[in-house]
Amino acid sequence: MLRFMPVGDSQTIGSAGEHTWRYRMWQHLRKTYGGPFALVGPRETLYDKATDAPTSYEYADPDPAFPRAHLAGWGEGWLHMAPLIGGAVRSCRADVLLVSLGLIDLGFYTNAEQTAQNVRSFVAEARSANPRVRIVVLPVIPNIRAEAEEPFATEVARFNELLAKALADLDEPRSPLLLTSPPPSYDIHLDTYDGTHPNASGEHKIAEAFAGAMYQAWDLGEPYAP
């Protein structure tokens, strides 16, 4: 059994009425991965905008077979997840982490250098729980604030450079770290509903970025097909 844990912020937890890229990834793995697998994590809910809390189970597809488990939170970043990831990996016996973080950190809490240091802390904590854990990381993807504010766009670009360096520095054979390419042809005007959060096409493109990286680097699954 290969256990995947989605880790992320609002783009990963999703909100009431959405499928989420987690669901798209589950569909992809179900079709292409040739063995038993599960999505794992200590949380299951979507964010409910009406109550301003992660309390919703109203997924767009109520298929009971979909494993809703994750470690994602609206407004959470590397800063918040680094102290949590060790316990989550340990309790859920995660083998592969699919991580999409950074936008919240840069927007509200830490600069590029500080955020990159939290990436390193996150990796160390994950490995303390599972020395063979594999980690796939999505860079910070296009968003409305980066389009509107040049200084923020510069900070995002700087962080993505530091993220690539951190993953290269920390990569090791028994616990490989993989940086995905940005989602192909991702356009905030077509692939999000508000400039930040993915709509259906955006969900597919984020899932495709993770799936493509794992297929190319580890021969896991097959090329993504929506």
Automatic annotation (TrEMBL):
Residues 7-203 form the SGNH hydrolase-type esterase domain. InterPro entries: GDSL_Rv0518-like, SGNH_hydro, SGNH_hydro_sf. Pfam families: Lipase_GDSL_2 (PF13472). It comes from the Bacteria. This is SGNH hydrolase-type esterase domain-containing protein. It comes from Streptomyces caeruleatus.
